[in-house]
Amino acid sequence: MRTEILRLLEKNARLTDGEIATALGVSESEVRAEIAALRESGIIRGYKCVIDRAAVDRDAVSANIEVKLTPKAGLGFDEVAEQIAAYPQVDAVYLMSGSCDLLVTVSGKSFREVASFVAEELAVIDSVTGTATQFIMRRYKEFGVTLFGDEDDGRSKLSL
Amino acid sequence: MIDYSKLIAPAVKETRPSGIRRFFDIANTMEGVISLGVGEPDFRTPWQIRSAGINSLRRGHTRYTANRGLEELRLEICRYLERRYEVTYAPEEVLVTVGGSEAIDMAVRAICAPGDEIIIPQPSYVCYEPITRMAGGVPVIINTRAENGFKLTAQELRAAITEKTKALILPYPSNPTGAVMRRGDLEAIAEVLRDTDIICISDEIYSELTYGVRHVSPAAIPEMRERTILINGFSKAFSMTGWRLGYAAGPTELIREITKIHQYAIMCAPTVSQHAAIEALRSCDGEVALMVEEYDMRRRFIVDGFNKLGLDCREPSGAFYAFPSIAKTGLSSEEFCERLLYSKRVAVVPGTAFGDSGEGFIRASYCYSLEHIKEALYRIGEFLEELK
Ligand SMILES: Cc1ncc(COP(=O)(O)O)c(C=O)c1O
After folding, report:
1. For ligand 1, what atom is nearest to the CA of residue B234?
2. Which CATH number is A53-137 given?
3. Which residue from B minimizes the CA distance to A156?
4. Please, what are the domains in chain B?
5. CA of B105 to the centre of ligand 1 (A)
6. Which tens digits make up the pLDDT trace of B100-148?
7. What ligand 1 atom has the least distance to the C-alpha of B101?
8. Beta partners for residue B322, in sequence order
């Protein structure tokens, strides 16, 4: 049941416990208990809505920032990552293989806001030895949801 | 001035485009319609199947195949039928066709002489009757009953058989009712057919889409294999409606004759689709299982939804349709559907599209996301409130 609940919620977090119970053919209280357990164990971390931000605010921008680090004593990758993650502007922080150490996604109201965050906040962190900022020009797909075109799947409304 | 109507062969002229065509046209052009009306999966064809199709084009497989289909594909079909349904066929006993549709048409044309009767249980998919008529045959309709879960009973079958009966169409799992014939149900049918020369044309296009029960092919019932033409395809199981690929399996003596018509009418099924289908059969059990699981969730959801709205809806065991009764509203199926479309912009199919015995029912497809089904049910609820 756990896998099925996660699959349903990952696709559509708006489903109520009752609706999930109906879809899975189990009782609502079982679903409620399972979801509580999933939250408690930290598997479910939150519920979000996929928003096409560009459609809400044309100036809004995001950037992926490749960050290079030189770990200092007592300040490993994890500590620096946690420090960066604490900024509200930061959407995501990942430890990477390859040319950079951390990949940080930052959102802001404008190019300038993001640029100044990188220059004034990120770049000055003690262990950070370099940053490379790539602005996101257009979003085509996010969280598995496509953000272009209409939703028409090409099927007619009625067929036998 | 050519009078075209005089040119058209009577059997074709008499085949009217299905009565609800007009209703369909309206629904298909109306703005803001939310539909539970289609008979095809919302899932895209699994990626590795698409990829196999693309690769076959890259490698230049762009010519005709053998009339009966690629040897490799027919072999995979045999393995699949054995693995999934415990029916054993040799590649010579399989013909690859342009969808299940062609296989049904060819099978009927191969055995139906003018005046022969073909028994068709209804409510059922719409093609059997016109195909029979165009082959010069006489459709003999059995109106299956809601009390029996729209399954065909031995008694009904026995009553429909005459000396002219050539074949029985067995359309299960059923579009539109979702009914599935269990082994016991099929054994009772086999009991009736055993002493006859009646051929069973078994349309098993929804065989993969059953819930809580396993599909049993009539060909797996003792003494039925020799009188069965098993028809199946890739449209529903693998979400491959647009690839147009299906097949017929049966005794060589029959398949050989069917292949003659296919050879002259079609040449061969699309080559690219045949290559893709090999991949589907070889490596997509997991994808199919996931899709079935998803349909199953939607099925429970929509059935529960209709029952909560007060429209009695039994749990369908197969295909991807719910078939709730709207008798309580006092409206005919067509009135219900038209008024629902005009007042709430929800498109469903009147049960009567599938035969007179569909009166009092509507077909609601659950080839849609839960969110979509939820919205449609909500609007149907509003409609029912306003009817009161
Ligand atoms: C019962 C049934 N048989 C056959 C078909 C035709 O399928 P295909 O795409 O294989 O021609 C359909 C399609 O809706 C169907 O519902």
Report:
1. 10
2. 3.30.70.920
3. B28
4. 4-44+286-387 (3.90.1150.10), 47-283 (3.40.640.10)
5. 12
6. 999 999 999 999 999 999 999 999 999 999 999 999 999 999 999 999 9
7. 11
8. B364
